[in-house]
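One such given next:
>
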Amino acid sequence: MMNFANNTSHMEGQSVSLRVSITGSIIYVSVHIPIILLCVLGNALVMTTFIRFKKVRKVNNYYIFALSIADFLTGLVAVPLAVANRLIISETTCRAHSRPYLFLPSYVLCAISMCLLLAITVDRYIAISRPLRYHVIITRQKTIIIIIFCVAFGFCYGKLSVWNFGSYPYKWMCERNLHDAPKLTIHLAASFLIPTWLLLLIIAYVRIFYIAYLRRDAVSNSKSQRDKSVQWRMRMHTTISSAIVLGAFTICWLPNSFKYVLKIYLATDPKSLLAVQTFCEVLGYMNSFMNPIIYGWRNHQIRAAYKQILNDCGCFQGNKPDQNSASPDKDDIGSINLTRSMTSVNVNISE
């Protein structure tokens, strides 16, 4: 085997040390601990809500359940591994052949979330543009298949992050802001994938809002004006709710998608490099605990379920909602129930 020059003589790699001072490390960990706790506890609450309350287990709420699992694992696995990878200098965390694997959960879970958001967007489009055929087009079985596809796609896409693209496997990566030309080209090209994907989804939501606007009065003449108003309000609420979830993802992950560009122009030393990395990554991880908040804010049934679970745990004292008598709520992220005599149209965002 050739003795590559890049297979450094870094003697510090033979022992474990911290990238910054003990004080800096404590501050760094302290910033991430609340994010970890909020991600784990918030999404555990969402998963418990879905499993425990039958009223919440609507077809499109399966997407919320899948997103909550991805966000839960982000807090439980991805963030702790990323924190250790950033702070600890060792053979495992600093060699090119092992370092990317510690970030693999972050890439995989982010890709799964992206794919699920795309599925939600398509679901919203069908629900708004084909309301009478929505239940025929979107079924429970199809939704589960789509979620499985999203998970498979996430693993495949996330796996790209561990490819060396010609790099030497034992290259020392810590405290470096330099990359091989092939790998740098890949990273710069990848920086524009998320913005392009988000732009397409935003355009899709503009189209959805436009269709909803055109159809605001497209109700049978036999329906009362009140029914028209309810249908319009529910559809708009559903569309706005799903758009908020996408908007939160966009705000949190756009800086992270340009992280490599920012590192090239702003990171002039190891400390500034860590600062850029921390800012971009913390903002991205925050999205994982924002979703449960959005669900509870926009969905009355989920909010009532939160209160029920917290009340049972002694964390929230209030009137216990009757989980078996939940009535259709007008601010539900999810379902639109028309008059019994008419065709039932279920438009759900949590979806």
Summary: Residues 11-172+179-312 form a domain with the Rhopdopsin 7-helix transmembrane proteins fold (CATH 1.20.1070.10).
